[in-house]
């Protein structure tokens, strides 16, 4: 399957046979004090800086999350979306679970954005999917429902299937549903990684839709989180991940090397081009 | 299947459900000038240092390769094997293709060593397997034969099957055959990585024997080789690699993180223990 996203001018195809599509995660106030403060002040210069640095490192899509304490996402999200769209051509990923804010942002977003996210809860399915359909967007479906995040692969598969099915009923094609099988902290549950990895492989095999995963939750609470995040991302790519919500500033060289390993980089040209442009400070 | 190896006292089981078994690769003169010079001088102090540093970082088995220009492996290999066995308790992996040198080393090696390697060529099968059987060793089988290293998975599978079958005819059980599907340079052939990864998965699925892979060939000729080697090793583990001939000094933290990701590290205790002992110089 193929998910086509569009920004103001740039089109991005997520399809699995091409290099991993990088959804830059950094425009997200969680643990980013400077972003919180500047957003609260209505100053978007830092947002611009985060957008530029991620695109420079290879972000294909930008995730936009403006959830701050006391903030009004219904006003703020469309403002930031317009601000980014006036300056950058990449597709946007609207990271918000408030239906009104999503609708307001989708109304001003360029091209064909991605909505992050719907999940298997009835309330979420009923509120988010009609908006996704109305604006012709694509959507990320999280494998969580009213009973929480299942510990086993079969139940996560059942939620994924439910989301795809419910989207289909509204006329959203499976091409436009990207499943996120949710990577939880392996420091809290030592089976959390393998369950997610197996779900990735099984979703790709059985439903053939695109699969994404979020950033660094998997390493939460552990020392040397970067090494754990690397291990997760590379394993997930080997199991069939087709796009990732991640930090290209930290992980682009690993992603390029893994695309090369998976046979998606003819003549290693993307890997070498990235290295020439960035020369990471490591041994050659 | 389960490959049981023994050193003077230490037993190592390779079985796939436990953390990756690390076969330390560093006692190998290729591109190690100091090792060549000290071996030529009959001085084994550097060998001892390489053995200790690898065991300290988590090597479960030590690969021993003493192939130097003008050297006599029939004499040198058993000497070094005895030297190591008197000082360290881990199983040894005798890395040599000269049948006489292998026989001489196996005659003095402690416990149950691993022979690295036989391949699918008639000459190799006929010369190496009877020695492996005679000394009750285990053996690594490379997926190469008289026609070279096949470019496709099916032909590598056929060679693996042939090696397992020929070993079986001599009474060497499949438990004692470890297949190495050969990782070639992705810089020279951009499909080299994916063919090897797919062979790993298929050997595990169809033959269920253990699978290993050698070290850094995959990154040959590329910049930032460490990132490429990491990407390969993590991908290979995700695809089912059960042991690796690698450098634990460089890659142990990545291996520990990946074992954790694959659900083979209860309570993340191995990962955390390693980090406490080594505190890699990276961000926590």
Explain what this protein looks like in three dimensions.
- Two copies of one chain form a homodimer.
- By secondary structure, chain A is of the alpha/beta class.
- Chain A has helices at residues 33-40, 45-56, 73-87, 99-108, 122-135, 153-169, 192-206, 225-239, 248-261, 269-278, and strands at residues 3-6, 11-14, 21-27, 61-64, 92-95, 114-119, 138-142, 177-180, 210-211, 243-246.
- In chain A, the strands form two sheets. In chain A, strands 9-8-7-6-5-4-3-10 form an eight-stranded parallel sheet. Chain A has a two-stranded antiparallel ribbon with strand order 1-2.
- In chain A, strand 7 (138-142), helix 6 (153-169) and strand 8 (177-180) form a beta-alpha-beta unit.
- Chain A is globular.
- Chain A starts with a strand and ends in a 6-residue tail after the last helix.
- The mean pLDDT of chain A is 95.
- Chains A and B meet through helix 7, helix 8, helix 9 and helix 10 of A and helix 7, helix 8, helix 9 and helix 10 of B.
Keywords:
two-stranded antiparallel ribbon; 15% strand; eight-stranded parallel beta sheet; homodimer; 10 helices
In short:
With 284 residues, the first copy, chain A, is an alpha/beta fold.
What is this structure's SSE topology?
2 copies of one chain form a homodimer.
Chain A: E1 3-6, E2 11-14, E3 21-27, H1 33-40, H2 45-56, E4 61-64, H3 73-87, E5 92-95, H4 99-108, E6 114-119, H5 122-135, E7 138-142, H6 153-169, E8 177-180, H7 192-206, E9 210-211, H8 225-239, E10 243-246, H9 248-261, H10 269-278
Parallel strand pairs in A: 3-4, 3-10, 4-5, 5-6, 6-7, 7-8, 8-9
Antiparallel strand pairs in A: 1-2
Helix pairs in contact in A: 3-4, 4-5, 6-7, 7-8, 8-9, 9-10
